[in-house]
Amino acid sequence: MKIITGCKIITPRGILENKSLIFDGRIVAVEDAGSAEQSGAQVISAEGGYVLPGFVDIHVHGGGGYDFLDSAPEAIDTVLKTHARHGTTSLLATTLTCPDEILCRGIKMLGEAMKNGTEGGSELLGLHLEGPYFSSAAKGAQAITEQKLPNISELENWRKLSNNSIVRIDAAPELPDMDILARWVKDNGVLASIGHSGANAETAIEYLGKGFTHITHLYCSTTTEHKEGQVVHGGIVEAAYLCDDFTVELIADGKHIPKETMLLCFKIKGADKTALITDAMRAAGTDAERSVLGEIKTGTPVIIEDGVAKLADRSSFAGSVATMDVCFHTALSYGVPLCDAVKSCSLTPARIIGVDDRKGSLEPGKDADILIYDRDFNLKKVFVRGNEIV
Which of 80, 237, 245, 273 is deepest in the core (most CB within 10 A)? Predict the structure, then answer.
């Protein structure tokens, strides 16, 4: 049993002062500071700092020099440990558009990791397939060489390879045969997200009705008001704001979207519908100046400059090099209220992928995924299921 004292505890109900947090592998209780002492318990003083729920990153490709698609045995562990040291206590492993054999190998490796478990880093919550059913007109840094369309045999193969661990898939709903994917995600309880898409607002709203409830990195490879021929249409951005049932995510590295855009999203969608993500690639948590987006041998060469990954010709950003502590600081520096910033880094993403029954907030019975920040919001300690990350 452990007890954190001398802290301000951030909860969905606000900031609790003069309280102590008691936990082992799960949150046991939040009690008055003077009544929380227990014989034999380890007492940890936050020295007047803040106690937050661990961050939940629902869009992360890699870190620490590795990508989740790498075949190296140490790849998954290294990525999980790298992000854990920066406050991410659980995450989805994100793939991207790549050759079929690379994708299938990566899905199988991640499925085996889900089955066998991992230790010493962020908890792996499942797989996030970012593509490959994307629009070439909105590919960003995705290596889309030919249009790929949904088919049941391929989807079922991925499901089996993953040991039923696919939590989320992103796709462009304007493509042909997208109803096949819409039925498959509904049948398998998978989160469907609109991403790397040239869809107009009408199509986005149509597919909201078919189960596409999330928007992948809003403002990045998503449409806004535009002309199709001589007819003006709204885009994915307008659909996201118009429809309360859409949740959204923002790459909060301080590079992909400006301050005003983040604040507008929080003003319209609110913290309950807005998740902050890293979209981190392999160079996250390193000081690399050159790297590779995707699998190390077949991926796309990128450069790292100005704190962001870019294609070599600088025509597009290529994922971020941020960790979730950076995203949290970005939100605070932009003026997002503390409790909203915490919620968008923890409870909201947990709710979006359906794990808020055990993740995302410091409530009794939930996993003891805990962060201790000092008064100046420097990250001091990270606990995953009650175990301190060193």
Answer: 80
